[in-house]
Write a structure and sequence with these properties.
Blueprint: E1 2-8, E2 20-27, H1 30-37, E3 47-49, E4 56-57, E5 62-69, E6 74-79, E7 83-89, H2 94-103, H3 121-125, E8 128-129, E9 132-133, E10 138-145, E11 151-155, E12 176-186, H4 198-205, H5 210-224, E13 232-236, E14 242-243, H6 245-254, E15 260-262, E16 268-270, H7 272-278, E17 285-286, E18 289-291, E19 298-301, H8 307-325, E20 334-335
Parallel strand pairs: 2-5, 3-5, 4-20
Antiparallel strand pairs: 1-2, 6-7, 7-12, 8-9, 10-11, 10-12, 13-19, 14-16, 15-16, 17-18, 18-19
Bound molecules: uridine-diphosphate-2(N-acetylglucosaminyl) butyric acid.
Length: 336
């Protein structure tokens, strides 16, 4: 276990904000994590579990202990003619796991290529992109209770997955540290290419192989989303609002260009990026806090913005969208 004091958070948050954590613990093994929570080690609370810092907005120093899972390893657990169960440690870089699955010919994660962050955050956020959400492949999640160090598995059902949501983000927030995630992947992959121009772009490269799908997703992401190593950001700052059919119909009449998508439950998701753009925010900045010029759903730190500057511009954007469209935006990024 690595324990450090007064740690600069700059390289631990993708907005690149300069705050300090009083303590930081990096746990390398599950045994270490158990000792952290069963009372063997004195843990200075409050605690914050971080999985890459790519979905957080710090608004000040953190006066407690930040816990970073360092659990490594990708394992094949079971294999049949149709499926393979694999598991990955919470500290594995998500995109390394996606790359590994594609190289092995296992289907299910390829549309989720190049999403920043660690495996441990994947079930918490139920990450999603290009028509696929992580919940469609997660079988179970291994965790350690942050109250007594006991080990508990959550089945897919028990995770309460929803759009960019799970019980780890709401009801059980802070109660469990994810140590390993188990995925069920297809050994005879079926491409999923219904989102936007994905199918056309893949056809341009050739057959819809896992490698080609991954390449296209990487190309699209690189063309639209800013690289946090170059300009601080946390991907989509807001969720796409989910509304019922009536509301969507009324909005569509007033704003025919508004992109809408049906979700699995039959509700309609509205493109928040489009609405923000229509309010004139795309590419705008207030000081060093800004809206990305190619994707209005992404807020950026042009250099010296504070967490509060970014929070403030997000509030203004939310107000504009509410005034023009009568729709409230919910933040996807977690404010600390
Ligand atoms: N749009 C605009 N202007 C903008 C941005 C988007 O008109 O500035 C329009 C696009 O033209 C398109 C629609 O809005 O018609 C949707 O845009 P896009 O395909 O870029 O996706 P998104 O809905 O803005 C969501 C996810 C992304 C994910 C993409 C692709 C959320 C909150 N965001 O964005 O996830 O990569 O779909 O599947 O659901 C993230 O969560 O951090 C993230 C980047």
């Amino acid at each position: 276990m690595i324990i450090r004091g007064n740690v600069s958070l700059k390289k631990y948050n993708s907005f690149g904000l300069e705050y300090v954590a009083k303590h930081m613990v990096i746990t390398r093994t599950e045994k270490e994590a158990v000792s952290l929570f069963n009372g063997s080690v004195h843990l200075k609370r409050p605690t914050l579990i971080m999985g890459g810092g790519s979905n957080l907005l710090f608004t000040g120093d953190f006066n407690g202990t930040i816990i970073i899972p360092g659990f490594r390893g990708i394992k094949t657990e079971e294999k049949s003619d149709e499926f393979v169960i694999i598991s990955a440690g919470a500290g594995v870089l998500w995109d390394k796991l996606v790359e590994w699955s594609v190289l092995n010919g296992y289907g299910g994660l390829e549309n989720l290529s190049l999403i920043p962050g660690l495996v441990g955050a994947v079930p918490v956020q139920n990450i999603g992109a290009y028509g696929v959400e992580a919940r469609t492949t997660i079988v179970k999640v291994k965790t350690i209770s942050t109250h007594d160090g006991s080990v508990r598995f959550f089945t897919n059902d028990e995770c309460g997955f929803d759009y960019r949501n799970s019980i780890f983000k709401n009801r059980e927030k802070g109660n469990y540290l994810v140590t390993r995630v188990y995925f069920r992947l297809k050994t005879n992959p079926v491409p999923y290419l219904t989102y936007g121009t994905l199918k056309d772009e893949v056809t341009k490269l050739g057959e819809p192989s896992l490698k080609n799908i991954r390449q296209v997703v990487i190309n699209i992401r690189r063309s639209k989303l800013p690289d946090p190593a170059v300009i601080g950001n946390a991907g989509s700052f807001f969720k796409n609002p989910v509304v019922d059919n009536n509301v969507a119909d009324k909005l569509k009449k007033r704003f025919p260009g508004l992109p809408c998508y049906k979700d699995r439950q039959g509700s309609i998701k509205l493109a928040a990026g489009w609405m923000i753009e229509q309010c004139g925010w795309k590419g705008k900045r207030i000081g060093d806090a800004g809206v990305h010029e190619k994707q209005a759903l992404v807020l950026v730190n042009h250099g010296k913005a504070s967490g509060k500057d970014i929070f403030d511009i997000s509030e203004k954007i939310g107000q504009s969208v509410l005034e023009k469209f009568g729709v409230s935006l919910e933040r996807e990024v977690e404010i600390v």
